[in-house]
Amino acid sequence: MVMMIMMVMEIVGSNGLMIMMIVGNYPKLIKKAPVELVYNDINDPIIPWPAEQFEEGDKVSDAEGTTIGSSHGWVASLMHGVGILRLHDDLNPVASDANPKCITLPPLVTLPQCQTQIITNVSLSSLSPEEEDCVVAIKFMGPQLSYCRPSAQGNSKWFNIRITNPCFFSSRLMFSKRHNMFCIPGSGGQLIASWNLCKDEHTPKIQVLRYVDLPELSEAEREVMDTCFTTEHLVESPLGRTILVKCFRQTVDGTNLKTKAVLVFEVTPKGNAFYTRHLGNVTIFISKSESFSVRASSFPGVSRNQVYILDDTEIVLFSLDDSTISSSTDRVVAPYFFPPQNIEY
């Protein structure tokens, strides 16, 4: 068995996905899965959609689900028009092509003055939604946060929380195994909100961050960062430390975003956010899946003290040692990093 970190690179034919190891000379894998799980633009001529796939008059949003996130290798898709969320392992490289698993959750409930069509991300509290105590949490764009327990055997239902502070409306959710809490960083990185949804606690714990030992930046660097779109990502290290990654991206060519800077902070239980360039044996992976980190020494070829970033139009490697950014503006139809999986050769 070989434990490797993978990402979906491209579509091969009408029902094949090419899976690539992050590093190393391992062979690429061809995984069969519905193309619409990762690519939903039926009008794009780059992807050869089979004419028989949709009945006359159908729209892609009505006929198929849209992939809206991934956690622990499980992919979440939203069936538009009916508001039903499905968890499945179609994109997991080690899942069965012939018999993929699929768990259908109850129809979503939209809170007044909220929406449940645009989702920032999905997070699982366990490795699999089939585990008895697993909680599935969804952060929608806006004030709604919802969660349910898939294993409730017919009694599964959504619990809905209205977030009052607008700084959390566009933020991404993560699950802290150490604290058994779902956490969201506020826009700008000044606050972190945490919920113990495993105990149905709907009132968040708010942590105010105090930044310590900020890096010395030149005037030119500050001017560039001031013009950037900033996103914040919470990651838990293999030792349980909370890490906050701030990504600064700038629009190029009028459309695409390009990473211009990355800042990494270690957050203490008291709310001190220490700027760091030394994560030691830790490597971080950020994509449209739930962010995760690994011990670099456990994965041959993975460089320590690095941040890998995968987005629709960019693949980035950031080195904390010297703050260098290596990037390529490739089009990625399925921008998902998959956490370590057992691959048998």
Automatic annotation (TrEMBL):
<feature type="domain" description="KIB1-4 beta-propeller">
    <location>
        <begin position="65"/>
        <end position="318"/>
    </location>
</feature>
<dbReference type="InterPro" id="IPR005174">
    <property type="entry name" value="KIB1-4_b-propeller"/>
</dbReference>
<dbReference type="InterPro" id="IPR050942">
    <property type="entry name" value="F-box_BR-signaling"/>
</dbReference>
<protein>
    <recommendedName>
        <fullName>KIB1-4 beta-propeller domain-containing protein</fullName>
    </recommendedName>
</protein>
<dbReference type="Pfam" id="PF03478">
    <property type="entry name" value="Beta-prop_KIB1-4"/>
</dbReference>
